[in-house]
Amino acid sequence: MAEVHIKINNQFITAEQGDTILDAANRSGIQIPTLCYLKNVIRTGACRVCLVEVKGARALLSACTTPVSEGMEVWTNSERAIRGRKTTVELIMSNHNKNCLSCKRNTNCELQRLCAELGIRQNRFEGEHTQPTYEDASWGIVRDTSKCVLCERCIGTCANVQGIGILGLQNRGFKTICGPVYNGSFDDVNCMQCGQCVIACPVGALTEKEEIHSVITAINDPDKIVICQTAPAVRASLGEEFGLPIGTLVTGKMVAALKRCGFDRVYDTNFGADLTIMEEGSELLRRIQNGGTLPMFTSCSPGWVRYVEYQYPELLSHLSSAKSPHMMFGAICKTYWAQKHNVDPSKIFVVSIMPCIAKKSEARRPECETGDYPDVDAVLTTREAGRLIKMYGIDELDALEDENFDMDFLGEYTGAGVIFGATGGVMEAALRTVKQKLENKPLERVDFMECRGMAGVKEAQIDLNGEKIWIAIASSMTCAKPLLEDVRAGISKYVFIEIMGCPGGCINGGGQSIVSARKKHGTIGYTYKDRRMKALYDEDRFKEKRVSMDNVQLQKLYEDFLGEPGSEIAEKLLHTTYSPKKKFKIVQ
Amino acid sequence: MTEKIRTLETLRKIREKERIHLQLRLDDKISLTEEDQHMNILVCAGTGCTAGESAKLIDQLNEEIKEADLSDRVRVIKTGCFGFCQKGPIVAIYPDKVFYTHVKPDNAKQIVQEHVIGGRIIQDLQMFDTSRIDGSKIYDIDKIGFYEKQKRIALRNCGRINPEEIYEYIAVDGYEALFHALNEMTPQDVIDQIKASGLRGRGGAGFPTGVKWQFEKNQPGNEKYVICNADEGDPGAFMDRSLLEGDPHAILEGMIIMAYAVGAHHGYIYIRAEYPIAVSRLRIAIRQAEEMGFLGRNILGSGFDFDLEIRLGAGAFVCGEETALIASIEGKRGMPSPKPPFPAVAGVWGKPTSINNVETIANIAQIIKNGPEWYAEMGTERSKGTKVFALGGKINNTGLVEIPMGTTLREIIYDIGGGCPNGKKFKAVQTGGPSGGCLTEKELDTPITYENLIEAGSMMGSGGMIVLDEDNCMVDVARFYMEFICDESCGKCTPCRVGTKRLLEMLTKITAGEGTMDMLDEMEELCREIKDTALCGLGQTAPNPILSTLRYFREEYEAHILEKRCPAHVCKDLLTYSIDPTKCRACSLCARNCPAEAITGKPGKEVYKIDPSKCIKCGLCMSNCRFAAIERN
Amino acid sequence: MEKLNGSALATIDAIVARHRNQAGPCIEMLHEVQNELGYIPFEAMEKIAEATNSSVAEVYGVVMFYAQFTTEPKGRHVINVCLGTACYVKGAQQLIDRVQKLTGAQVNKTSADGLFSLDATRCLGACGLAPVCIIDGKVYGNALLGTNFTDEIRRIIKEERTTESAS
Ligand SMILES: Cc1cc2nc3c(=O)[nH]c(=O)nc-3n(C[C@H](O)[C@H](O)[C@H](O)COP(=O)(O)O)c2cc1C
Ligand code: SF4
Ligand code: SF4
Ligand code: SF4
Ligand code: SF4
Ligand code: SF4
Ligand code: SF4
Ligand code: SF4
Ligand code: SF4
Ligand code: FES
Ligand code: FES
Ligand code: FES
Questions:
Q1: Mind telling me the catalytic residues of A?
Q2: What is the per-residue pLDDT across A120-130, written as a single tens digit (0 to 9) for each?
Q3: Which string of DSSP letters, residue by residue, matches A517-538?
């Protein structure tokens, strides 16, 4: 890579050919604020927050788009640069619904931070605002264009990360807004509800639909037994909501905090994950043995499931019919657990704490209404859980003593369940059980390293009792797409494919703690995903039991209640159906 | 199918043959044989004259000629715009060199009977030439003041040849420059000549054309493009439209030479959809050029391949900006992207691309044919050649004016344009469109060059030149431009999207009498900041109309703010209309024309009254009252 | 939203097929659809998106960006008033006021009776005839002088009223 010598703020800097001014500055520890640029996702030069003064240039230039060139001289903090930047932010503010106090992004908002850092002390340019849209028809996402800064980060994410492109700019000039076609709802279009756009948004324009209040009501209802379950990925990110470093594992503290919130039980969805493996694993074996549809896809990512229903309805038969872990867990709560405790299932209120926005819609799927009651009554994201905990007076998560999950009937879980939270985890968990079951002896090697890592697509050949099968793993839809095209074309060599809706899996789900663009551009960069992933594999590593089928409470569940995986009752409670969906509800 | 031309001899042979038909219209005197002594009736078929039913006029003329059995002696030829659309439909008759204006289809019979057969010049159709001191009527093309002082290089064929007939273009030396370039010059030679001519872009910024081409030529790779920018977004400018309608082959020839120079094999003409006639002429021209081998494979036997495609705009001023134009060609929203990288490095489809304005391209073949020295002789030290302006607004002779660089504004406005009509006082001239500014009486003697105009607070722009008289309010003009910009801003970057809206709000307040003096400073400051921060040229120049009016007409702003008065009686909120009962004759005309039904009275009986709460201040009553009974304050 | 009839769908298919192999054909397709159908229905955007390998949101964004495209059918008669500079300084605003009064249509909207759409455009290149307006494709220059163009609007209204009462 050729070197380029430039000067930033009178300091000599060696940059690389192809760097932008921002890259070179970041690498040298010089901060230039940004708003619209999101590394690896979108770079348009639209917001004009990263303006710098460049010798010889007529106007200020955007650092995020301007390539360095030999001998360039840049000032990032000249009075002129700061004035330009500040005016820009003041202009954004003048067309912004500045309701910070009641905004979900309060204290965690990139625009708010810019205003604070630039010392903006007045509303210099008050004036008319762009006609706002507030839209909350879908179960997952709320769009409030009065807070949108038109950075296009969501657009870039949906188009470039998920390859779907639901969001786009509409109109032009001052009337420009960002949203789905006809400025409609996420429910009218083929949105998978992954929420990646939500965590890309720098401000409160895209947020999850909050369900905290129904949860509080249930907790305070003396007639309700409120059961909380937490997904594996949550423990790797919840700490960030309380200022802990990215990747801090907070399992015990999370349990302690949630118990203080007044939940009657706090369980780990991992029990459901182990259950999923039993059901999905035996389904896979059945398909292999009986010549069923192959390759089989995992079905525990509801974002991904929605994607297939919209984009590849002809591949629906490839999806495992297993419900996702939290739904299975909910179904078991309201049947087996209710029986065991002799309580009326209608009194049970199941709350899932998830890294995911798609699970909010999943809980309302008509296809999932198999039992007499909804499997899950409310879904909170990691962020909502953080808010709930703070609302209940706990500010210092790390000051709490670790506590254990409740242990009655559904409390045990294996390491296999924990790793569900990262891309490749479900595959590895399944392989552990399937291999052990087929070979009928404890595994020599529990770790399937070929499943691990942040690569978007992974593949491996696995020896299952002498038979070698190809498996593949993909996360995010741009990565999944080539695999799907092969399956559609009938040329896929794989037998089993794990697909996760979010890049990196649930540890990077749309409901997780939001990592600011500044962190993504800085020294942490995109390693935040690896850090969270590592937390999960650490928990797995120290677990005594690491294969789902070894879960004793789970074995008991089958013994006492379900019988065999795939039994009639298991089918009824733990499996579901899918249906092709129209890409657009706009034209009926 | 027509035989493709492969050698200079073939080209020349065609030229000699065709030239005879054009002899009459050309200045060179080759004696014609009796049988070639056709009379040519040229009828403008440009946008303006077509609006005046010139197509029907052409049909009528042909019919009359047929009826009079003159078909073998008289030819009716449709031409492009004469640049004098205001007086259209225009008819010019050769060899008599007679120029008729405001010709209606009904006049066809008269022309054939009186002029063609009777040999008499028709008085009623002669032009009243306001640019002449004696103000007399005139018919001699060579003596029309409007044309006399012009130097028509780019416009040379407009109004002289039939734009839908490639042979006519060849007859006036068309495609010969191309032949020389392809067969006798290397691409570098071509670029060197363009550089030496000093030609600078006519689309706005005035970037040296040869230098731009050199950038592209120097880029690695084989896939390169050229684009002709025919978006002509400046409202009130129509130079490019006239060139495309009147001489489309000159644009094609220029583009092919350009493509050869930079090494491109594919080109686009991006033209606004509002110009249907120009689009159809271009399509015809491209088809003809393909048939004769000027486009396509192995052009003129040189081995060079090039093809051309037309792309239509869809109503977005910003698409004149080159990066937005590229996005639009690619089928996207026309939103600009930051430069660098420049189009010469990464343009359409990410490949090196040169973009030039129509007028720039119209000069290319002439430079190659006549040599760079010839071109560089015209104009000034740093601004060479000629420039076409679209003179409009409050001016007697609205039209297209091509003058050598260095001509003064005064010469254009008074000598060619004939000054403001109705004896009104000249107030300002706006150049450069929405990116430019207003200049006053004091700047009228400034020679027109890129640098001088910028120094005076305006810019050359693409050539729009709107004259304003005492009835125009400068604050309102600034507000008009800002409204235009707000409508046309792509909305991508903050300073332009929000900032221009804030400027418009301030101006609107001032024109409504709600302004404050602080607002003027705030506005000026915001103007400067937008110029410094916006992403593209649109935003970076958008504040210019405000800055220049603040610079030259600050007292007019102050009158709106301090005295709540619009000196030019334009800003509606500061006006009241009333009827002077002593003058009103109760004719009811005003009431019948009032769009707001604000006027009441009894016809013939009771004097009329305006209800100020209903009046929308449109001024229609005032212009309708024949007794000057309506007052405006 | 109404469902499109089969012939409109076939028209769209033909247009898409004609341009599908061209580079960057989206705007060309949209122009043709609008020319044929008078507006751009959702189905056209969907088909264009498919053919150009882009998302419907993108195509919709293009439609909403360019002033000439519309997603709603226009009135039976379209009046364009030029609001370019040359026309503006010569009183185009007065023209707009008059047309609004006569037709009841607001700028860039269609009148309640569906008869007229009033569109403001920017410069038709006929600036020499400023102010200029176009009724159903026919250009009226110097429109503030004389009554040519108001007569035409009145004529249309009368004609439409009589055909209405006749049917
Ligand atoms: C907002 C904006 C609008 C423009 N509109 C036009 C236009 O309508 N026609 C044109 O030729 N150039 C236009 N330009 C200038 C072009 O970007 C570009 O500089 C020009 O086409 C280059 O050609 P030239 O070097 O021959 O002038 C515009 C620039 C801006 C910033
Ligand atoms: S988005 Fe940010 S700046 Fe806007 S209201 Fe919310 S917290 Fe405040
Ligand atoms: S930050 Fe300021 S405005 Fe916001 S709550 Fe505190 S005191 Fe009030
Ligand atoms: S939730 Fe996912 S699929 Fe839906 S708009 Fe956002 S990024 Fe696109
Ligand atoms: S919704 Fe959020 S991410 Fe999308 S453009 Fe608006 S501010 Fe940016
Ligand atoms: S990957 Fe995880 S967080 Fe993302 S949609 Fe799927 S289940 Fe939800
Ligand atoms: S300056 Fe205006 S037109 Fe140019 S990119 Fe910014 S918003 Fe768009
Ligand atoms: S100015 Fe216009 S609205 Fe007012 S009274 Fe006169 S005609 Fe009527
Ligand atoms: S037009 Fe003049 S004279 Fe006639 S009623 Fe109106 S004010 Fe009176
Ligand atoms: S322009 Fe650089 S961050 Fe927005
Ligand atoms: S259109 Fe006829 S002179 Fe311009
Ligand atoms: S400004 Fe109206 S036609 Fe040009």
A1: 280, 283, 300, 320, 359, 362, 367, 506
A2: 999 999 999 99
A3: HHHHHSSSTTHHHHHHHHHHHH
